[in-house]
């Protein structure tokens, strides 16, 4: 199935869900987070799609006070087609429904995004920091993050070579 056919199938089932689409260089759609969990369950189960493999979930900060993004790369092991889902989230209250119960591979990836970007995955079974200590302040991969001078009395290195 081509990317255009996949997008058409999705818009036929979920009218108005696609806010934007493109091919830069991979096929993607941009959706609102409100219907994400329903769409995700359907895309995994729909016989024409069977997007059963979640390859990657990543956070993205375009900077300049724009919305943060979560991007999902989905693949069908049966049909050999794929699609990227992009969801923009508010920078001040970033949250997206979790899909770790749909695709178990999302578990640690959602936790890493939470740890690095502060995006909360609603409904995640164990959403807590995975790379940093629980008392670390801030979200290090956000473009507006300011590295603290010290942590627990130790100097935090600033050299990023």
Task: Set out the fold topology.
Layout: H1 3-13, E1 18-23, E2 27-31, H2 36-45, E3 53-60, E4 68-75, E5 82-89, E6 95-97, H3 106-117, E7 120-122, E8 150-151, E9 154-155
Parallel strand pairs: 2-5, 6-7
Antiparallel strand pairs: 1-2, 3-4, 4-5, 8-9
Query: How are strands sequenced across the largest beta sheet?
Result: 1-2-5-4-3
Let me know the largest β-sheet. Answer: 5 strands, mixed
Radius of gyration: 17 Å
As residue ranges, the low-confidence spans are none
> If you consult CATH, what is the topology?
Beta Polymerase, domain 2
Overall residue-averaged pLDDT value: 93
Question: Can you count the beta strands?
Answer: 9
The level-1 CATH class: Alpha Beta
Named CATH architecture: 2-Layer Sandwich
Number of domains: 1
Work out the strand percent: 25-35%
- The rough form would be described as elongated
Structural class: alpha/beta
Number of helices: 3
Brief characterization of the structure:
By secondary structure, this protein is an alpha/beta fold.
Give a structural overview.
The chain is of the alpha/beta class and 161 residues long. It has helices at 3-13, 36-45, 106-117; strands spanning 18-23, 27-31, 53-60, 68-75, 82-89, 95-97, 120-122, 150-151, 154-155. It has 3 helices and 9 strands, in the order αββαββββαβββ. The strands form 3 sheets. Strands 1-2-5-4-3 form a 5-stranded mixed β-sheet, covered by helices on one side. Strands 6-7 form a two-stranded parallel sheet. A two-stranded antiparallel sheet has the order 8-9.
């Amino acid at each position: 199935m081509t990317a255009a056919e996949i997008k058409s199938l999705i818009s036929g089932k979920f009218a108005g869900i696609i806010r934007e689409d493109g091919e830069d260089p991979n096929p993607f759609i941009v959706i609102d987070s409100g219907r994400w969990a329903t769409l995700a369950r359907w895309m995994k189960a729909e016989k024409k799609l069977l997007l059963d493999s979640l390859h990657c979930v990543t956070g993205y900060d375009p900077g300049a006070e724009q919305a943060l993004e979560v991007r999902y790369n989905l693949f069908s092991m049966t049909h050999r087609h794929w699609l990227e889902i992009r969801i923009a989230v508010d920078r001040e209250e970033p949250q997206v429904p979790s899909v770790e119960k749909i695709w178990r591979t999302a578990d640690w990836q959602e936790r890493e995004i939470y740890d690095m970007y502060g995006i909360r995955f609603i409904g995640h079974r164990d959403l807590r920091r995975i790379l940093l200590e629980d008392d670390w302040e801030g979200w290090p991969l956000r473009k507006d993050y300011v590295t603290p001078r010290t942590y627990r009395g130790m100097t935090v290195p600033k050299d990023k070579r």
